[in-house]
Amino acid sequence: MIKTIIINKQLSKILISFLLILSLLAASTLTLYHYQHPQAIKVSTDPKTDKKYIKWVEFNASYPAMEKALSLDVKSHTKPVQLHWVELLSYLAAKYGGNFKKYKSKDMDALAEKLNNGETMEQLTAQMKYYNYYYEAYDAILGNFVGEYDIQTKDPDNENGKQWEKKYGLKVFSPIAKGYSFTHYDDFGTGRTFGYARKHLGNDLMGSIGTPIIAVESGIIEVMGWNMYGGWRIGIRSFDQKRYYYYAHLRKDRPFHTDLYEGRIVKAGDVIGYLGMTGYSTRENVNNIKTPHLHFGMQIIFDESQKEGVNELWIDVYSIVNLLQKSRSSVVKDEETRDYYRAYDIIEPNSGYDF
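Above: the chain's sequence. Below: its structure in token form.
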């Protein structure tokens, strides 16, 4: 009897070990499947409506690819065939499996040639299983960056005058004002330890304290105030609700532009605050960051449940920051208020908001 019990215990241990191994293998296979097949990440959050949305995005479109796609889009704007930069990038993402380390300029040239010769994107992507996934993801990230707009420029006939010009192209701006230098590197995903171990979900732009910080895109201020991690910070939501821009570690004492408040609408190119080194403190208005810099982050929101919590989607904005250097907002200082203001105004005809 005792011998039988010992054998049964040994068999039980072997069975448990076997089941544990099977579970680990299943989890590993599922993780690999999710990584290789992005559409598998779409999940249903509402069993009543079977509502589906993208749960995971890894954005790594390179600067050269974005710069060329943008150039082709702008140059073709008045031609019979309009080349849309989001479509071009989405096609290449599907071709490369999302890995833009494979990017070759000739691939985009070949795609543009086919489109200019009469083939449609629908025809060219008919056999691309994940093109629609990449298009939905990339459109959420970049879709509102390019379009028609009116902007003030210098009047050549009046030294201090301004005139309005209609343009087509980038209608978003660098987060750092024109004339102010900064340095950065791709630090997305690096480790952070204050409070708890976590990944860095943005791009740090190192600069001088007081540098005017610019609203990249027009939108509504959702958050403005102190956070123990980000210090004085401001969060702006795009009008289509898909992008949430996060600007953190703003200047001590005078972090924000005095005209701002939660709920206010801001335009792309507006001054929203000033670079600093606040944060890493439970006490407000404390400089506990070692190097003055702006933490700039972009969160993508396909479903409102992703706004806060474990399902947040933050993308690597390093290449986007590089691209935005093509569009920088000039600023002027009001000596009375000590605040900086944009030098040239902008109007976005299709924004849906009357500024």
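The radius of gyration is 24 Å.
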